[in-house]
Design goal:
CATH topology: Rossmann fold
Bound molecules: flavin mononucleotide
Largest sheet: 6 strands, parallel
Number of helices: 7
Order of helices and strands: HEEEHEHEHEHEEHH
Structural class: alpha/beta
CATH superfamily: Flavodoxin domain
Radius of gyration: 20 Å
CATH class: Alpha Beta
Helix content: 40-55%
Strand content: 15-25%
CATH architecture: 3-Layer(aba) Sandwich
Length: about 200
């Protein structure tokens, strides 16, 4: 009888405790991304950037918080002008400011960092973000969109820039696919996340 009562009590405890665990299991993941809407290569004029679409899929699958790096000084909506702006930022090693800040940075142990490839590089505003916070002990996972360069050398660049973090293998998706094929993008993201063996 004692055994039965203790079994029942354990079962009751598990039933009440499990949903709490389930909620808390995701409280430690953050998706941060930069993405540019407006005119872009291969997709015309878009309302939401390609990387934004990919980032939202990752956040949904990870049940993560999400933070967009919105530039204080907006980029042009004209593709050719953005090309020039990016060239100038890279030439001067600029650190463009972004709006707002991340609350409760310390609560996150896993941070996804997303961006488009710009002239083979990570856009400078992402470096502004990486300069802003302490990444000691964090797990960082890059993701990006592109139109042919894949990850370029961004995986290595992030590892080099954040030596205090553990940087896991990122995912690159074509911008036009992220923009126009949510189903395929979600499949790619899910396969990749499963391969990382994260505690989703
Ligand atoms: C300034 C600029 C430079 C780019 N340079 C590259 C590049 O070097 N390699 C590449 O594959 N795509 C390049 N692209 C294309 C973008 O990486 C691609 O369209 C991406 O999906 C845009 O993402 P977003 O909509 O989130 O900003 C460039 C786009 C811009 C605006």
């Amino acid at each position: 009888m004692k055994k039965l009562i203790s079994l029942l009590l354990t079962a009751m405890l598990l039933c009440t405790a499990l949903p709490v665990f389930a909620e808390e299991a995701h409280a430690h993941v953050l998706v941060v991304y930069f993405s540019h809407a407006g005119e872009n290569y291969n997709v015309g004029v878009i309302e939401e950037g390609n990387t934004a679409k990919m980032g939202k899929i990752i956040a949904e699958q990870m049940n993560a918080d999400i933070f967009e790096l919105v530039p204080v000084v907006p980029y042009s909506n004209v593709y050719d002008e953005v090309l020039d702006q990016a060239t100038e930022e890279q030439r001067t090693n600029a650190r463009p400011e972004y709006e707002g800040e991340i609350e409760n940075w310390d609560q996150y142990d896993t941070v996804f960092i997303g961006f488009p490839i710009w002239w083979g590089e990570i856009p400078n505003i992402v470096y502004t973000f990486m300069d802003s916070y302490d990444f000691t002990g964090k797990t960082v996972i890059p993701f990006n969109t592109h139109e042919g360069s894949g990850q370029a050398h961004s995986q290595r660049d992030i590892s080099d820039y954040l030596p205090a973090a553990t940087v896991l293998k990122g995912l690159a998706i074509r911008g036009s696919k992220a923009q126009n094929d949510a189903e395929e993008t979600a499949k790619n993201v899910s396969n990749w996340l499963n391969g990382l063996n994260l505690n989703k």
